[in-house]
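Supplementary Note 2. Why include the ligand at all?

Several targets in our set were suspected to adopt different conformations when bound, so apo predictions alone were not considered sufficient. For every target with a known small-molecule partner we therefore ran a joint prediction. The input for NAP is given below.
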Amino acid sequence: MAPKTVLITGCSSGIGLALAVKMARDKQKRFKVIATMRNLGKRGCLEAAAGVTLNKTLEIRQLDVCDERSIITCINSIPNRHVDILINNAGVGMIGPIECQTIEEMKGVMETNFFGVVRMIKEVLPDMKRRRSGHIVVISSVMGLQGIMFNDIYTASKFAVEGFCESLVIQALKFNIFVSLIEPGPVVTEFETKVYEEAENADYSTTDPETADMFTNLYLKNSKAIFSSLGQTPNDIAEVKGLAGPPFRHQTNPVYTPMTALKHADPTGALMTDTFYKMVFKYDTLMHISLKAIKVIRWQARKMRQGVKMLGFR
Ligand SMILES: NC(=O)c1ccc[n+]([C@@H]2O[C@H](COP(=O)([O-])OP(=O)(O)OC[C@H]3O[C@@H](n4cnc5c(N)ncnc54)[C@H](OP(=O)(O)O)[C@@H]3O)[C@@H](O)[C@H]2O)c1
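The joint prediction is reproduced in token form.
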């Protein structure tokens, strides 16, 4: 069987880079990967990670999801514009009190995380429909299912993506096109570094002191603890089975499943708001102890897996 052409956006780092390399190195050679990035000056890490697959099963092309011309140029450069699998990965984060963010900055997040996905899908969908085959994957987030304090705009962008895909999936199925949403919890990538850097340099004088304190001393502290205790690696996401098959939603971190289930357990939203309020403002000490315990358990499990591997059992 001819390899499937996979186009991935945002491959200069993190999940996109890991996915591109994982698929390009597929032992059964099922994929030809078009790994795209908006700034080709950042191709070094991907080239190094791609190794022997570079220009064989992995090609690097320029594509900015906010620039329609670059999308069209990239798709037109693919023979017969034939994309079997589109992986919408490019994304940006944004954290902080909304009083400290401009509408222009907020629009920037929506432009990339929501309209970026829409632009890409609009460009490949007609060809997929004609061929009556295709798979559209979107790297969403648990924040596409559940709002998190001080992630208001980022969460809104991922909710937008989720609503868009939930509407599209049924029509797409009629054309034998599958749509999949991958919903990771925290993943340790440059994404985290970038938002923390922005948070450190931001001006909090446009909000009240209580909110500024809540963000810098409570949220940032909790967020860092959550990333270091529960964070997955980009490779964990690249291993996700849903990428090669059609389930519509795939949460990659089972720790988050109960959290996202709260609103379904109580449609009034009271259970969800009450739980989060208590977790953040009342039982934060307990939360930190639990996070530390989880961190130790995960560390032990990792060591055990390494030991099992070293002994040659896997
Ligand atoms: N890290 C997490 O905790 C986490 C959790 C859930 C979901 N996600 C989602 O996973 C996806 C990948 O994030 P990541 O964690 O791998 O972060 P990352 O390492 O920062 O990667 C983001 C990628 O998107 C690219 N990008 C940004 N704007 C773009 C644009 N206009 N056009 C094309 N590419 C653009 C970045 O390129 P530049 O290098 O040029 O900026 C970079 O290659 C995002 O959609 C994110 O929302 C991340």
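Residues 9-10, 12-16, 37-39, 42, 64-66, 89-92, 112, 116, 139, 141, 184, 186-187, 189-192, 194, 234 surround NAP (CB under 6 Å). The first strand starts at residue 4 and ends at 8. Comparable summaries for the other entries are listed in the accompanying table.
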